DNA sequence: TATCAAAAGTGTATTTTTAACACCTATATT
DNA sequence: AATATAGGTGTTAAAAATACACTTTTGATA
């Protein structure tokens, strides 16, 4: 291989993951207690370093998988953070990713093993380095993305109630929504399948379960339809 | 300094800039003829490498300044590109930035010196590596950003006509807009200053010049107003 | 100096979207 | 049998977006 750029500086490239989950009422992020210096013992995002033979998306997948056992979830690059002294140990540039997972799916044991813990985004502890600002940006991106694309479903179990969906959007947008207007809007999008099944946990009456109809959404999208909440 | 991460791989971090300009009718990007291998002689974005002692924003500024003499323009990080073999010479991750400049301000001489050239985004040549996709993403980001924030003015001279502004938005959005509706909407935002001066170049009648009232915009924004075109 | 050509400038009516709002239903629990 | 609790449902008003055509100005030209 040619090596035309040999005089240029090389740097460490970290990948940090903001992992979002939704737990009935609250939007949460998964944090880990850092077990190495610097800042050992402080709460941190899941992170690792890019390797020579992988791209950033792959590194993010690998890091998530290694630290939590979680695979095949929605993940998207957020932004790169490059303040010269952001990591006191060594010059490191960090590329942040955010992931959306169905909180019920995660293997609690694996997460325990690594001292990972879910925190409400409203009550999360102070994080190392520039991780606080990464989380802030991730929430803002999540807000934008979930209002333009049907990504919210990634945070819910496959079968969910209208109320759960509404609470999810309320948590993401950090505002109360009108029940009737919300349901009317979702129904007008016509991308859910209403099941005959009811969820009996939340009330005596029970509430109908729905599923996201991904195929229908794709078809409609191809025809120019655009999701908007 | 500690060096806790010494076993990790280091990589070259490139910064590539998509420089947007607007020339009466068309949205343009500034390209450069690459004068070193690999891909010498092909058209490329302006690029360079991150140095140890600067952050990415600073690197982007430095690169733009070095290659064009352009300083103090709106610039924003876009995305990082990391395909393993994206640069055949060596493993390189590129962080793309986009800049908005008033095309009249650029020093034509300096640009000539570096074989840089403006191309309409509709007629731009094929670019090296993954630069085509970067441009595509940048246009998409520009569309989003200029519809939510008053960034379009960065691409115009300080004094501009309504028609120029409309043509700018038409070029960015790649669609015709209705003259009356456009003016009504812009006027309703109430962030322009109408001057007594007319621009006599475009018609016999002449058309009034306007300026963006940045102070007023900031005041309104602080009060909860949000720009939306 | 009258006419023409070319872009500037201007307002209303219709449609669509968003927002506000309250009562009945079903059923497990007592 | 009564009650408590969350589920479910439609209409009206307000706001925003869209569609649409004629008059004005003035330099150039006949």
From TrEMBL, chains A, B:
Task: Report a single Gene Ontology molecular function.
Answer: hydrolase activity
Family matches, as Pfam families: NUDIX, WHD_NrtR
Keyword Ubl conjugation applies: no
Keywords noted in UniProt:
Hydrolase
Q: Which InterPro entries match?
A: NUDIX_hydrolase-like_dom_sf (IPR015797), NUDIX_hydrolase_dom (IPR000086), WH-like_DNA-bd_sf (IPR036388), WH_DNA-bd_sf (IPR036390), WHD_NrtR (IPR054105)
Q: Give all residue intervals belonging to the Nudix hydrolase domain.
A: 10-142
Where does the source fall among the domains of life?
A: Bacteria
Signal sequence annotation:
none
Stated name of the protein = NUDIX hydrolase
């Amino acid at each position: 291989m040619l090596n035309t750029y040999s005089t240029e500086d090389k740097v460490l490239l970290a990948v940090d993951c903001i992992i979002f989950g939704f737990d009935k009422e609250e939007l949460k992020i998964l944090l880990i207690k850092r077990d190495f210096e610097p800042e050992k013992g402080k709460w941190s995002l899941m992170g690792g370093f890019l390797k020579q033979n992988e791209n950033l998306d792959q590194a993010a997948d690998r890091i998530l998988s290694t630290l939590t056992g979680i695979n095949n979830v929605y993940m998207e690059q957020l932004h790169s953070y490059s303040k010269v002294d952001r990591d006191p140990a060594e010059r490191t540039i960090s590329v942040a990713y955010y992931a959306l997972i169905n909180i019920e799916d995660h293997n609690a044991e694996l997460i325990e093993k690594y001292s990972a813990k879910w925190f409400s985004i409203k009550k999360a502890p102070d994080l190392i380095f520039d991780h606080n600002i990464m989380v802030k940006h991730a929430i803002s991106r999540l807000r934008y993305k979930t209002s333009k694309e049907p990504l919210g479903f990634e945070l819910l179990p496959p079968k969910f109630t209208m109320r759960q969906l509404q609470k999810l959007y309320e948590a993401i947008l950090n505002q109360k929504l009108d029940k009737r207007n919300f349901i009317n809007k979702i129904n007008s999008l016509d991308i859910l399948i209403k099941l005959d099944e009811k969820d009996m946990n939340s009330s005596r009456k029970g509430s109908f379960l729905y599923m996201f109809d991904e195929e229908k959404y794709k078809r409609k999208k191809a025809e120019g339809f655009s999701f908007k909440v």
